[in-house]
Specification:
This protein has helices at 4-15, 70-77, 99-112, 115-121, 148-180, 193-224, 229-252, 261-290, and strands at residues 29-35, 42-48, 50-52, 55-59, 80-85, 88-96, 129-133. By secondary structure, the protein is of the alpha+beta class. It has a seven-stranded antiparallel β-sheet with strand order 2-1-5-6-7-4-3, with helices on both faces. Helix 7 (229-252) runs antiparallel to helix 8. The chain is globular, with a radius of gyration of 22 Å. The protein starts with a helix and ends in an 18-residue tail after the last helix. InterPro entries: F420H2_quin_Rdtase, Hemerythrin-like, Split_barrel_FMN-bd.
């Protein structure tokens, strides 16, 4: 639960289209909803931010305290976040900046809001700078869905796009690694935080999608189409195999910056092959059936609001 003060800020923010008075009069705030690193519950935190071109930058200042704020630990565990900015709400991936980029962005933050420089001066920890990134390839996904088949295609396009994005970032990482290494130079100790965050966000979204299908979609369809039982059994088994590989990826990424790059690359390629085959089979098997089911679902015929 937010503190009473934060709760009052959240309520004022939502009641006035993102405007907050009192000590925040004239300042830009956003609401960041994260998933608890340990609890798995949603937490909403009002935060100041700085714009850098099209980027939104957050600083894990915690008012200069010796520990990172809770929301920062949350985004390391679950990078997919919800952002409320003014009257807009959108999904983003929280990516901590590293090395020179972190220093450059922090200088940009301090130039806009000098108080963050004071917070840094009062603590020995390096204040993290977190970039809120919109998921890649969203512009390529149709926004309207008239049937459950359309909705499945939307989700699958998003998953394919995110997986492609993670693989492209991974290959770019290895290309840069090769360019900076000479004979006898040991490999880098781990993957970049950007790859890690995008991969974990993808894995969380994939797990949610497959759990929803196993729990709700497949049982409902199987009840009306017993002739497809073997199809649903195969899809459920493929979910288990993808989840196993996904669990190995998550274990590799559990320690920030300490994943084995070559092993990660191998597991990611295996995930890509398994998931691509699975999505292709699922679409071939279910899209004709799902095209007959309207989206969004309405109340049962004769109950609630009439359907038009």
């Amino acid at each position: 639960m937010p503190t009473p003060f934060n709760q009052s800020v959240i309520e004022e923010f939502r009641a006035h289209g993102g405007k907050v008075g009192g000590p925040f009069e004239g300042s830009e705030l956003l609401l960041l909803t994260t998933t608890g690193a340990k609890s798995g519950k949603e937490h909403t935190t009002p935060l100041g931010f700085v714009r850098d071109g099209g980027l939104l930058l957050l600083v894990g200042s915690n008012l200069g305290a010796p520990r990172h704020p809770d929301w920062y630990h949350n985004v390391l565990a679950h990078p997919a976040v919800t952002v409320e900015l003014g009257t807009d709400t959108f999904e983003a991936i929280a990516v901590p900046a590293e090395g020179e980029r972190r220093d450059r962005l922090f200088a940009r933050v301090v130039a806009a809001e000098p108080g963050y420089g004071d917070y840094q001066a009062h603590t020995s920890r390096t204040l993290p700078v977190v970039v809120l990134e919109r998921p890649a390839h969203e512009a390529d996904i149709p926004q309207e869905a008239a049937s459950l088949a359309d909705k499945m295609v939307q989700v699958h396009l998003w998953l394919r796009g995110q997986l492609k994005h993670v693989r492209e970032e991974t290959e770019a990482y290895f290309a840069a690694l090769a360019a900076h290494q000479g004979p006898g130079v040991p490999p880098a100790p781990g993957l970049g935080l950007r790859i890690r965050q995008h991969c974990l966000a993808f894995c969380d979204a994939l797990a949610f999608h497959h759990t929803s299908e196993d729990t709700h979609l497949f049982p409902a369809l199987a009840g009306h189409h017993p002739e497809l039982r073997a199809t649903f059994d195969r899809l459920t088994e493929e979910h288990r195999e993808v989840a196993r590989i996904q669990g190995e990826l998550a274990a590799l990424l559990a320690d920030v910056g300490d994943a084995d790059p070559e092993r990660f690359r191998t597991e990611l390629a295996r995930m890509s092959a398994e998931l691509t085959d699975h999505l292709d089979y699922e679409e071939e098997s279910l899209l004709p059936l799902l095209s007959e089911i309207p989206w969004p679902p309405g109340p049962p015929t004769g109950e609630g609001t009439p359907r038009h």
